Amino acid sequence: MLTRRHSLVLAAGSLALPLAARAQDLPPKGKRAWAAQLPVIRIGMLGGENDADRLARYGGYQKLLEAFFDVPVKLLMAADYAGVIQAFAAGQVDAAYMSPAAYAAAWMESNGNVVPILTTVEKDGTNSYVSLMYVRADSGITKLEDMKGRAMAWSDPNSASGYLIPRAEFRAAGIDPEPGKFFGRTGFAGGSEQAVIAVLGKQYDAGVTWSSGQGDESKGFTRGVLTTMVNKKMLDMKDLRIIWRSRPILNGPFVLRKDTPAAFQADMLALHRAIPVHYPDIYHALDMGAGAGWTPVKHEDYQVFIDILKAEADARRRR
Fold this sequence. Notes:
Blueprint: H1 4-11, E1 41-45, H2 51-69, E2 73-77, H3 81-89, E3 95-97, H4 100-109, E4 114-121, E5 128-136, E6 151-154, H5 160-172, E7 185-188, H6 192-200, E8 206-211, H7 225-231, E9 240-245, E10 249-250, E11 253-257, H8 262-278, H9 280-287, E12 293-296, H10 303-318
Parallel strand pairs: 1-2, 1-3, 6-7, 6-8
Antiparallel strand pairs: 3-11, 4-11, 4-12, 5-8, 5-9, 5-10
């Protein structure tokens, strides 16, 4: 259940932050002593986007890390969020840019062996996004209540915007999100882009995804999956209708494996805080939008998502 405490934590993402990105000095280039323990930096890449686009977005970032730390950087692509979560638990990934719910799952599965260090700050000073429910524009569906008995596409079971937050908010509003209760059927599309494609292809009546929820709707808003798909000519927003949006959700964190050397963690924090200032193109490729930079975060900022995951697990056990 989405409690008052959860609502306040989620809404906190809409507050301006005093630590918004400022000019940061770049760390010196060169081989580090920590390379003896970490000879390769392994970066996990969440699913939800096709492999070619993920590699293209991360290519400049990969080369930048290699240039600064003089160690090879390996990009590890997963078919879905669970792949990166399990890789953290197995000690096979050293860093990743994660959704808030994926971080919570990785923290639980790795027994706390993952630590968040940064999250995105938007140009208006906020550090949040929303979950949007969309339908086909020609579907005749205009509001959430019209989805009763219809088919609902979730993005990924470890997605905050594409699964956990909508379900928590629906329950708080008295709507049971389990299949056959309010929705006629539900299913996982395999990612956010895939869910949009499935709705447009009439496999489902609606889907949910992350978005800034701000700016020109015809362009897919200022940031998010819809924005990216519009920019890639995969989507015309005239074909979709937005029928529901969540409360603000804290942006997902950039995370490191907690048992990596402290010097490595300090170097990664310093370089990443400098990237938006000195390498804005690389920052925006990673950010998938028009953010202003990164700001530090801590584990407690994401405790609400751990609570929601535990509530989901309890609900499954009661079925």
